[in-house]
Amino acid sequence: MGLRHADTWGRRRRSLDLCALLCLLVVSVASAAEDVYQETRGPFTIHYGPRTRVDLDRIIDFLTAGREQLCGALGLEDPRPVDVTLCETAGEFDEALGFDAPWFYAGVAFADEREMVINLPVAALELKQVLTHELCHIYLSDALGDRLAVVPRWMNEAIAKSLSDEWNESEDILLRDAVLAGHLLDFEQIERSFPAEHRASTIAYAQSATFLEFAESRYGPGVLGRYLAGVRGGRSHGAALTDACGVPLTVVQEEWLTYLRKHYRKVLLLYRIDELIFFVMAVLVVAAVIATVRRRRRWEASQSHADRELPPSMVSPEHPRPCQDRQGKRRIHS
Ligand SMILES: [Zn+2]
């Protein structure tokens, strides 16, 4: 009994040891899953998980270049430090944001917290542009302070997109289709929030960016600087933009729409011309192949006809095959 008790106790000890080991493992795994590394370089602190495969030097280079470009454009001298959280999966991204983001979100900026969260798989192809875009939202808040509230969402995105040189082919195609079909969004619709659906959201970003870029090119460089100065000075968004362009906002919008329609009609026409040229070339190739086949058949027919005209002894294996010379005279190869 005593031995049996000791044996039971020994087994219990082993079970307890095993439990402790398992608990230790679970705690270790849980803490490893929650581990976040961070590295501070200059005005940026990068946060990333153990599974994040990232080239920090490259990220810092992009951020540093973006900072320099944005400071010049927004009139900032030495903005305060910014935290950058890099996420390897959509789950990590949602967790870092605290909400479920649409699948196409590449990054989100929290200007008040001076933090940006980057969804690496989505941002990968345009990482430099995405980092600069999110940084721009934070620096724009620095540049305008409380006056940022008068800037509509579309203008905020237009500035971020324009200054980050963020543009890709799919945006161009979606904007082209929306312009030609008359499906652009009213700016009032995107004054405070953007659509959650991918296509509409892409069009909203693209039309906002092209509006600002058109204003800069049509009414001279410096439109953005004058607009920001106007907002800082207490002007409303509409008044500041009107002052910056020198014409009423309705005129700017009308001219921008006319420009977009002309531009995309021309693009579509060139595209159609390309298609037409390709079609004509394809028809010419097919016609050439058919003509060659027909010539070959005619030549074979004339040869068999010539063979039939010769006496049987002339086409016997002992004699060479007759053919036509350039003057059409039959000759014999020797
Ligand atoms: Zn943005």
Ligand names:
zinc ion
* Assigned CATH architecture of the domain at 35-150: 3-Layer(aba) Sandwich
The helix fraction, in percent, is 55-70%
Mean pLDDT over the full residue set: 84
CATH topology tier name of the domain at 35-150: Glutaredoxin
The number of distinct helices, counting runs of at least 4 residues, comes to: 11
The sequence of SSEs as H and E is HEEHEHEEHHHHHHHHEE
- Strands, total number: 7
Unreliable segments of 5+ consecutive residues:
1-16, 18-33, 322-334
Radius of gyration: 36 Å
The end-to-end distance, rounded to whole angstroms, is 119 Å
CATH superfamily of the domain at 35-150: Collagenase ColT, N-terminal domain
For the biggest β-sheet, the strand order reads 1-2-3-5-4
Please describe the biggest sheet, giving its number of strands, its sense, and whether it closes into a barrel: 5 strands, mixed
> What percentage of the residues does DSSP assign to strands (E)?
5-15%
The level-1 CATH class of the domain at 35-150: Alpha Beta
Please identify the structural class as seen in this structure: alpha/beta
- Principal-axis shape: elongated
